[in-house]
UniProtKB/TrEMBL annotation:
<dbReference type="InterPro" id="IPR026749">
    <property type="entry name" value="Tmem135"/>
</dbReference>
<protein>
    <recommendedName>
        <fullName>Transmembrane protein 135 N-terminal domain-containing protein</fullName>
    </recommendedName>
</protein>
Length: 258
């Protein structure tokens, strides 16, 4: 609902990973806020993504004020929501696998080379499994989110007039995040939470700022970075065991052992 409040490159990554047309997301945001659809633009959008005959029929019958933007606009290349989401599960897993492979194998080679040489089979197989596990986690998150979107549309089509509140999309995200994270290894769940928490906090702050509910703070980024680093270094000195092994070893390489 507010892509302007997160970093552009992060939003681009999310759209590319989710494999949903960015134009379709923009149409949905506009409709949720009560604006009419530009039917000519809708047809131009779906035409770019190899629409099926069913998609074209839905778009041809679409009014300027539909209750929701239909599934045909969100996944114009497939008529079936089930096929869409199963295909997305496979595609996201395949596409994100090289990214997680890099994230897992590079630290293994750079920071744990001695352990790797002692037991290469065990460490390599474990790292490969964790790479696949992380890829499946993200794919399940994407697929589950889109499944909930499609279910919402299908329920409305069946006659249950639930509306299309922007808070539904937040609820869908909360539901699939809480479920998908259980696939990821337990030791990484807190790290993932700490990765997305600052982005979520920044986004919330910008939304509140746009609504004039909060005031801007000069050099806020510098302050938060300094506070975060002070916490990390404090834990490094006093309770090193609470930090992730990767962070600890990275500090060792930069500053040496204290």
């Amino acid at each position: 609902m507010h892509p302007d409040t997160i970093p552009k490159e992060f939003f681009t990554f999310m759209v590319k990973t989710a494999r949903v047309p960015a134009e379709s997301l923009a149409l949905n945001r506009s409709r949720v806020r009560g604006f009419p659809l530009d039917l000519k633009h809708v047809r131009e959008v779906v035409d770019r993504y190899k629409p099926t005959t069913g998609t074209l029929e839905v778009v041809a019958k679409l009014s300027e004020y539909p209750e929701v933007v239909p599934c045909a606009v969100l996944h114009p290349s497939f008529d079936s929501c089930r096929t869409t989401n199963m295909t997305r599960l496979i595609q996201v897993t395949r596409n994100i696998l090289p990214v997680y492979a890099t994230l897992n194998f590079v630290p293994l080679l750079a920071l744990r080379l001695k352990r790797l040489m002692k037991d290469p089979v065990k460490l390599t197989s474990k790292t490969a499994f964790n790479t696949l596990r992380s890829s499946v986690f993200l794919a399940i998150f994407v697929s589950m989110y889109q499944t909930q979107i499609c279910m919402h549309r299908n329920v409305l089509k069946a006659g249950w007039h639930l509306g299309d509140s922007k808070y539904l999309y937040w609820l869908f995200g909360l539901t699939c995040a809480g479920t998908a994270i259980m696939v990821e290894q337990e030791s990484r769940r807190a790290e993932l939470a700490m990765y997305v928490l600052p982005k979520a906090a920044t986004s919330l702050y910008k939304i509140l700022y746009q609504k004039n509910w909060v005031k801007g703070v000069k050099y806020w980024e510098v302050m938060t970075f300094s506070f975060a680093m002070s916490l990390i270094m404090s834990f490094y000195q006093q309770e090193e065991q609470v930090l992730s092994p990767f962070v600890t070893k990275l500090i060792y390489h930069i500053l040496g052992r204290s």
